[in-house]
Specification:
The chain is mainly α. The chain has a domain of about 35 residues. It contains 3 helices and 2 strands, in the order H-E-E-H-H. Strands 1-2 form a two-stranded antiparallel ribbon. A hairpin with a 5-residue loop joins strand 1 and strand 2. Helix 2 packs across helix 3. The longest helix has 23 residues.
Length: about 110
């Protein structure tokens, strides 16, 4: 990419989702760079004191991700979900990145 301008960051378009987001609270944002780390900002306050709830939320995210990949690529939701779980298992076994402590920034990490 040397010599080329990077594409500007785009936010997910959520304006049309106001009805399904009503009464909910954001607790996670994620970014990825090409061949680089994933950056996650997590606020534990909206999900509560028990990390178990985050596990439920992340499992829901896997299923929603599988649906998104199925729509975007034509693969089945089952195949997409299996690939996502395989990636999670691979990362759990051999982490490619370690979290950075952002506790000085409030409840974010």
């Amino acid at each position: 990419m040397f010599g080329k301008k990077a594409k500007p960051l785009a936010e997910l378009a959520i304006a049309d989702c106001a009805d399904i987001l009503a009464g909910s609270h954001e607790f996670l944002r994620m970014w990825v760079t090409a061949d680089g780390p994933v950056t996650c900002l997590i606020d534990t306050q909206p999900i509560g004191a028990d990390p178990f709830i985050q596990g439920i939320a992340l499992t829901d995210c896997v299923r929603h991700g599988a649906k998104a990949y199925a729509h975007a690529t034509g693969m089945s939701e089952t195949e997409a979900e299996e690939r996502i779980w395989a990636g999670l298992d691979a990362e759990r076994t051999a982490p490619t990145d370690l979290p950075t402590d952002l506790s000085q920034k409030g409840t974010l990490n």
